[in-house]
From TrEMBL:
Keywords: ATP-binding, Glutamine amidotransferase, GMP biosynthesis, Ligase, Nucleotide-binding, Purine biosynthesis. Gene3D superfamilies: 3.30.300.10, 3.40.50.880, HUPs (3.40.50.620). It is an enzyme of class 6 (ligase). Homodimer. The gene is guaA. It comes from Malonomonas rubra DSM 5091. This is GMP synthase [glutamine-hydrolyzing]. Transmembrane segments: none annotated.
Amino acid sequence: MSDIHSEKILILDFGSQYTQLIARRVRESHVYCELHPYDMGLEEIKAFGAKGIILSGGPKSVYDEGAPAIEEELFELGIPVLGICYGMQLMSRHFGGEVIAAGKREYGHAELQSVGTPGPLFDGFFADGKSPVWMSHGDHVEKMPEGFEMIAKTANAPVCGIQNVARNLYGVQFHPEVNHTPRGDALINTFVRKICGCSGSWTPGQIIEDAVARIKEQVGSDQVILGLSGGVDSSVAAALIHKAIGDQLHCVFVDNGLLRLDEGDQVMATFASNMGVKVTRVNAQQRFYDALAGETDPEKKRKIIGNLFVDIFEEESNKLKDAKWLAQGTIYPDVIESAGAKTGKAHNIKSHHNVGGLPDYMKLQLLEPLRELFKDEVRTVGEELGLPHQMVWRHPFPGPGLGVRILGEVKEEYCEILRRADAIYIEELYESGHYHKISQAFAVFLPVKSVGVMGDGRTYEYVVALRAVETKDFMTAGWYPMPYADLARISNRIINEVKGINRVTYDISSKPPATIEWE
Ligand SMILES: Nc1ncnc2c1ncn2[C@@H]1O[C@H](COP(=O)(O)OP(=O)(O)OP(=O)(O)O)[C@@H](O)[C@H]1O
Ligand SMILES: O=c1[nH]c(=O)c2[nH+]cn([C@@H]3O[C@H](COP(=O)(O)O)[C@@H](O)[C@H]3O)c2[nH]1
Ligand SMILES: NC(=O)CC[C@H](N)C(=O)O
Ligand SMILES: [Mg+2]
């Protein structure tokens, strides 16, 4: 078994908005990396065994009292270090440089100018001695650190790139990790591949080979149970685990009555018929409708749905002899976010449910083969495993499903109406080529009636709202500028074809201040 973790980069997070993007760029260079808080101890850092360390940006100023600092010996380990923004300022100070509040702050686009010879990090970065970069800083390095050369500046900031080639220490004031720095990805690639000497073994084929070997080793001859939703994460997890242990995997698909049109049949057909995976379908529609009857509060609805999922899971695992593992499609952003959530600093806007919020009595161990992967890596792995393209590139669908897309009380009748409207909407998006330009699209049922006229007769029926958003990380999102002609066609079809709807609206709210789902 090749060890794809033998080459890895450590990213120390000083609280930048972009730390996750640094990890994305490193992964795109086919190098494994992990994010850790800036105060990771020296012994832990040594034990991690990184081939390179990246220090992120951060909101504080290095000269503030109590500003986040690092283990001083970090620079003595002989491991290459790249400091970005705050990271460069820390490095500069450590080596006797001076950081001050800048007279001219820089936010947004700036033109970086090469100073002296570009050096290994900036290899190929400049064209005619210049390169567009993206800045976000109020401080700058005024006096150079000892033993370093200055390799770049801008009109406003005297020091924007520093290097000590002999010790493999580099710093940049700009943000190479954001898309607005056009050659930034190449710079990060140069750092991890050329300077740190990583060979780039983090490829889909290797990830699969490694995961399969690890699953086999962990699970042995035990049985594994997995909640399969038909969404990207649980589907890829199922395919991966099935490749590793075949029939020892038992998937449970819960039809909670809150799924999209024909979704249950599609999931069963794809997995059971085409892929030979054992899937038990639990028809629990009525149980969910009964449990939700009369409840209008969004948070209470989410809790009801989540709890019922767990109950059903428990029942199913009790039916299975020797089930020792519960597999989940947890991915890296889930891991990072729940680590953040544990600090308790964030407001609870809504309770996101993942089935398998394990109750103590469940006694199953967790198997999470995707917990190191980002969504797009999960998708690439899914493609490599031969999952249908449509399944891999589907928009995410929340666990509580239509339960959070029917405002207020959930009724079976409303679910039927919404399923039909949503299916038309999504079909039209596929046909017009918009689907893959949109991050997530769906219809929402509004339990209010308005007056209309159809075939000379008065109608008094419900309203459907259409939502389509563009986003990278689902934390912030903009509404999709759908062409009028497409909106017209979709609205026309929904009103004509779906009984119970006589009005369609398009949601033009961004997140924040709205959220993506309506509840
Ligand atoms: N109807 C369902 N039956 C069984 N398990 C489910 C169901 N809905 C959700 N789950 C479980 O909850 C987990 C979290 O759901 P989530 O929507 O985040 O992921 P997903 O459905 O696998 O992927 P995607 O984000 O693409 O929708 C799933 O991985 C799956 O294990
Ligand atoms: O698995 C999930 N369980 C949930 O309870 C849940 N609630 C929202 N979402 C999805 O998360 C993303 C952000 O949604 P919001 O802007 O509505 O919070 C969007 O992609 C939402 O679809 C969920 N996913
Ligand atoms: N983005 C950053 O890392 C900013 C660093 C520091 N707070 C500054 O304003 O210069
Ligand atoms: Mg889902």
